[in-house]
């Protein structure tokens, strides 16, 4: 018997259209995740939502913010998701259920995985919180497919969970990095599927 959690990664204004580091299709993902949860919330013992939550300049968040050269959009990025700013808020079309566990990551660090973040109002890591709730399986959705979604799913497997990415509920920065990311996830044993695949 599996106990399943949904991890919603970084569905934040700065990663959606009009934001500082917009991903094409980000706002559509916000709406799609909301629709999915309206139909499928019963599948999940827990919903987790992560946010990138960076320190403002002059803190580069360990080199995550490009300051001396243009961002390469692979390891350096425009300033985004500064803690407490509108860009760091969840997209307004993302409706999270009561009891959602919130995670903040990247405070003066360049965290990509939700498992590297700090769980709000709980002690211990995200892996600890999931384990304490009896979670065995996680489904990962959100932004962006080729970076934080992949890092989160990969860390879920490393932490001993069975992990699935619901690809239709994600959006990516770029195709080449997405192809590498999904190949890596498949190698690591992550299931790649669609939200309506049963
Ligand atoms: Zn970031």
Notes on the structure:
The chain has 198 residues and is of the alpha/beta class. The chain has a single domain, classed as 3-Layer(aba) Sandwich (Rossmann fold), CATH 3.40.50. Helices cover 25% and strands 20% of the residues. The protein has helices at 26-40, 126-132, 145-158, 175-188; strands at 4-9, 46-52, 101-105, 118-119, 137-143, 162-171, 191-193. The protein has a seven-stranded mixed β-sheet. Strand 6 (162-171), helix 4 (175-188) and strand 7 form a beta-alpha-beta unit. Helix 3 (145-158) runs parallel beside helix 4. The longest helix has 15 residues, at 26-40. The protein starts with a strand and ends in a 5-residue tail after the last strand. 45% of the residues are buried. The model has no long low-confidence stretch (mean pLDDT 96). The structure holds zinc ion. GO terms for molecular function: metal ion binding; nicotinamidase activity. Keywords: Hydrolase, Metal-binding, Pyridine nucleotide biosynthesis. Belongs to the isochorismatase family. Residues 5-195 form the Isochorismatase-like domain. Pathway: Cofactor biosynthesis; nicotinate biosynthesis; nicotinate from nicotinamide: step 1/1.
């Amino acid at each position: 018997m599996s106990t399943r959690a949904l991890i919603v990664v970084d569905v934040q204004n700065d990663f959606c259209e009009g934001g500082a580091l917009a991903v094409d299709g980000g706002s559509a993902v916000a709406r799609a995740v909301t629709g999915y949860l309206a139909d499928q919330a019963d599948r999940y013992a827990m919903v987790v939502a992560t946010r990138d939550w960076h320190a403002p300049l002059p803190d580069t968040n360990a080199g995550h913010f490009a300051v001396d050269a243009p961002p390469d959009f692979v390891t350096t990025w425009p300033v985004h998701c500064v803690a407490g700013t509108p860009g760091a808020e969840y997209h307004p079309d993302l409706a999270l259920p009561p009891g959602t566990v919130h995670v903040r990551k990247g405070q003066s660090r360049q965290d990509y995985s939700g498992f590297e973040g700090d769980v709000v109002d709980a002690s211990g890591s995200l892996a600890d919180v999931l384990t304490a709730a009896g979670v065995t399986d996680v489904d990962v959705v959100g932004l962006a497919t080729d970076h934080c979604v992949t890092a989160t799913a990969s860390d879920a497997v490393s932490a001993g969970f069975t992990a699935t990415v619901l690809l239709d509920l994600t959006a990516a920065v770029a195709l080449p990095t997405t192809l590498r990311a999904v190949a890596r996830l498949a190698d690591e044993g992550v299931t790649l599927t669609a939200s309506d695949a049963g």
